[in-house]
Design brief:
Number of helices: 6
Protein name: Regulatory protein spx
Family: Belongs to the ArsC family.
Distance between the termini: 51 Å
Shape: elongated
Helix content: 40-55%
InterPro entries: Arsenate_reductase-like, Thioredoxin-like_sf
Order of helices and strands: EHEHHHHEEH
Largest sheet: 4 strands, mixed
Organism: Lactococcus lactis
Strand order of the largest sheet: 2-1-3-4
CATH superfamily: Glutaredoxin
Radius of gyration: 20 Å
Number of domains: 1
Length: about 150
């Protein structure tokens, strides 16, 4: 199952991800700060290359978010993994968005090239076969006209 986490409906990059999934008829489940669970966070961590640092807003880039939560001086680096998960569930505003993940992949933000990894293999094979067929037709037409 592919999960799509977003904090607010209608945010630009979240809308792009959701449109991309719908255009390709890819099944997914939308997660919000209210439906996010510790199991979801554990799954994100399992497939993340950067751990929590890749999932949460940095204090320097999102200073206002941290200040609004009255967490400006808070040092989350000292927390255990379980404590950090509970912290995120209490303050989901610190998560980056959108987050797209499944059992083996994770994508934070909208990246046109990297999101293609979420296209099921059978669709990629069909697409590749169509591209090869079009290239073959173009090749034959080019040399037939000469």
């Amino acid at each position: 199952m592919i999960y799509f986490f977003t904090k607010r409906q209608g945010e630009n990059s979240g809308r792009k991800v959701e449109n991309w999934l719908k255009e390709r008829a890819i099944n997914y489940e939308t997660l919000s700060p209210y439906t996010l669970t510790s199991e979801h966070l554990w799954q994100m961590l399992r497939v993340s290359e950067e751990g929590f640092d890749g999932l949460i807003l940095s204090k320097t880039r999102a200073k206002k978010s941290w200040q609004n939560l009255a967490l400006r001086g808070f040092e989350y680096e000292t927390l255990t993994v379980e404590q950090m998960i509970e912290f995120i569930l209490s303050y989901p505003q610190i998560l980056r968005t959108p987050i797209l993940f499944d059992e083996t992949r994770l994508l934070v933000g909208y990246h046109e090239e990297r999101i293609r990894a979420f296209i099921p293999r059978c669709y990629r094979e069909i697409f590749q076969a169509r591209v090869m067929e079009e290239e073959k037709k173009l090749y034959l037409k080019t040399y037939k006209d000469e």
